[in-house]
Every structure is written in structure tokens, then in C-alpha cells.
UniProtKB/TrEMBL annotation:
Source organism, top-level taxon: Eukaryota
Name of the molecule in the record: Uncharacterized protein
Amino acid sequence: MMASLREEFRWYHPEIKTTSVHPFFIAPPASSVEHWDKQSRLPDVTAPYVAEMTVKGIKEERQTVTVPSHLYFLLWLIKILPSPAGEMWRDMFYAKINSLDNKVKSS
């Protein structure tokens, strides 16, 4: 969707730049109330780090900012893999998020 928007801006408003930000799991502050139980093989990133990388990407007029940046290549790889291979990768490097409310209700 962003690619379509970016293309329209390129033709009709070239002075407008866009940046898509793809943060993986942002660690909540210690003071926040936990609303879910997250199990992931991917690392959490802090909100200040995501903000820093986002601002840096905007200043550099990058089209895409992935935080952490090394996961960009994994996203690219998943896009070019056949669907079953991409699904297998997502199963291996899963992120399961369960609502704590569901745990309470099911207990």
C-alpha cells in the first residue's frame, strides 16, 4: 500500500517523501501493565531505539526503516520465497501473543 502511495506522490507531489517503519516487537516500559504474554524468537527493541532509527531514516530520506535493521533482509527473503517456504520460516521464528484476559477467562 505504501508503494502505491509513494508512486502517486512521486508523480503528483514529488516534494512529499514517505518512510515506512517496520519495528519488530517493541519492549513495553517496566511501569506498564502487562496485557499479553508474548513468546518470540525475535528480540525486543526499545521504544527510544525505534524512535532514534526512525528519525535517522527520515533524515536520510529512506523509503523503509526496519528495526532492528538486520531483519530487513529476512523480510525481503520471505517475500521472494514460495509461500510454503515463507510459512515454514514464520513457523520457525514465531511470535505468539496471547491475551492475559483469555488466560483468565479460560482458567
